[in-house]
Amino acid sequence: MARDQLRDFHLFAIESALPLSMGIFKNARTGGFQKIIDVCKSQDPFSEFQVDGEADAKTLRDKIDQWIPGLGHPVVSVDVTVEENNPKSERYDQESLVSALNRIDSELDQLRSFISRDSSKIDDE
Fold first, then answer.
1. What is the residue extent of each domain of the chain?
2. Cα(54)–Cα(49) distance, integer angstroms
3. CB–CB of 65/72 below 8 Å?
4. What is the tens place of the pLDDT at every residue in 41-92?
5. Which of 56, 57, 64, 68 is the most buried (most CB within 10 A)?
């Protein structure tokens, strides 16, 4: 349980807090304290700071990953589900495959006939 909380905190810090703080620093560098105040007065300041800092945060995450792999870009657990095969779609897939193979065979026959005609012209010359 504690390990999950630590992993969740790490993910939050890397994916949300880091871009937010990098956005604040970027705005402070480019426009000073006034620019930070202007962004804070906007409709959604957190999103704006995150968007502004995402590029710098990605660079920092890449550097952290070079130092300690997995620390900058943490592994995220996923849930995997397996869907049962539908016999109807399986039948459709088989019919589709047979149709495609028949079309390829027909085109190969045409190609063989073109090649044999062209090779006979070469022999005549």
1. 2-67, 85-125
2. 8
3. yes
4. 988 888 889 899 999 999 988 888 888 887 787 766 778 888 776 666 666 6
5. 57
